[in-house]
Structure formats: structure tokens, C-alpha cells
Amino acid sequence: MTVNERKAAIIGAGFVGSASAFALMQSGLFTEIILIDSNRDKADGEAMDISHGVPFCTPVNIHAGDYSELGDAGVVIITAGAAQKPGETRLDLVAKNVGIFRSIIPSINESGFAGILLVVANPVDILTYVAQKLSNLPANRVIGSGTTLDTARLKSELGKHLNVDSRSIHSFIIGEHGDSEIVAWSSANVSGVPINEFCELRGHYCDHKGAMERIAADVRDSAYRIIERKGATYYGIAMSVRRICEAIVNDEKTILPVSNLMKGAYGIENIVLSMPAIVGKDGVETQIPISLNEKETIALMKSAQTLRQTADSVGLTE
Questions:
Q1: pTM value surpassing 0.85
Q2: 56-89 pLDDT, tens per residue?
Q3: Of 63, 177, 204, 208, which one is the catalytic site residue?
Q4: Cα(40)–Cα(66) distance, rounded to whole angstroms?
């Protein structure tokens, strides 16, 4: 079956799924967007509501559907899963959402889907690993949103701290999308200027370490603070979904910190975690081996071990 790169499907019409559909409707990337949910009325209602904004955007057909319609889709986005509750970590969700994926992925396989599978549900690294194991697709075509949003949050915080456009900041959060994530400070820069030098350029001469620790903690804990206040996070991740889809549909070969399979880099293999990778029409083209210092490398290995233990706990690793 020929893949229609301008056709997308979103599985899960909750907060994240519907916000992602809204963001994609405005993007002009797709001519058709299908919403699939166990509650067909919910999917139908969200599709109807979003479609009323189409006259203000590029024409796109948004409608509720089912798995039989996925065969020729270019991108399928999985947002379905149990929501993270106040006080819960992303890894606390693993058993519930692995069970959900064990029912979703076979249905996708049965449709003959051969496009790119983008996992957004949490814990995203573990669930991307599950999807890679259960799907009929090669690993490079099954990716997760990973730390794309965490990295955007980091750039936002650094932009405020340095009083500079966050788009000029080049930095990554790597490892688990969660509590063991790592800020790759040693490779962070502002338009080529190392981050510490740029801090001094902007008048921050003291307590670099304290500021770095505060910013890293604020980024790591931001989802928890949002969930405490409004019950869920969805706008930021919806924009991350849009950005990743842009890279895929336009074959941008842009570098994004997505969840992808490790194959020996930094001594880590056979587990999925978030690392910068070139993303295009075939999913992950190659990982980018960014420079890490010894402390960051050790922290990355510990993050990978955390994910491996979680995968072991639900019988995923061999």
C-alpha cells in the first residue's frame, strides 16, 4: 500500500491527543487527520470542534475513525494511555500503559501501516521500546517525543536567565524523559559561544553552578508543577508533536532529542532513551554523538540503567 505522507492519525483523543490535533490542524502539514479513541463519541466531538477552525487555516479533513484507516497513513501518533496524576512519576505509569500498548500496537500492525510511528504517551522512552518490540516496523521508524519538550523548556528558562532569544540557544536534555534526565551543559552554547562565557557576557559572574542546578531542577519539575495546578500538561507537548511532524513530513533532517534505540554509544545498548538524532522522512536517520564530560556520561549511563530496570520489571528486556 502506498503511504500518503500528508495523512496522519492520532490514537487517543484526550488532552494531549486533541491539543496535538489542534496544533497539527494549524500547521498545514496534513490534508487528513484521523482521531481514534476507545470512546468514539469523544473522538467525534473533538474532531468536530477542531474542524470548525479549518476555515481560518489550510484546508484539512479532520474526522474520527478506526484502525482500519491507518494502512496508508504517513504518521501515526500515539497519545493514548493513563494520565499522570499529582504525586505520580512518569515511570509509575509504566504497567498500566504497557498493557494499553499491547492492545494498540497489534491493531496498528493489522492495518498494514508502514509510515512513522510517533509515541507520545508516558513513560515515553519505555513505551517507545514497547512499540519497537511489538510493531512490524524497523526501529528507526518508531520514535518517541522524548526530551524534545524538556529541551524546549530548558531553552525557555535559559532565554529568560540570559535575556536572549531562546531560539539562539543550542542545548539538549538527554536520557530519560523524567526524573533522571540530564542537562548536557558541557555542549550547551548560545550561537557558538559556550554557555559559561555567555553568562559572563550577560553579567552573571557568580554562582554559575547554583544557577545551572536551579534551572535544571525547574525544567525537570515543571510538569509536576503544571499537573498540581491544572491537572495535566498538553499545550507544550502538542507543539513538540507538531515540530517532530514538521521534521518528518518535510524531510528536514533536523536534529531533535527524540526517544530512539541505543546501539552502543556511551556504552549503552538495547534500550530506548532520548538522544539527539537526525530526524526526517524515514524517522531517525542517525544519532548525533554530542560531547559529554565524564559526569554527564556517568549520569546518562545511570539514566539508562533506571530505564532498563523499569523495562525488566514488566518483562520487556531479554
A1: yes
A2: 999 999 999 999 999 999 999 999 987 767 777 6
A3: 177
A4: 9
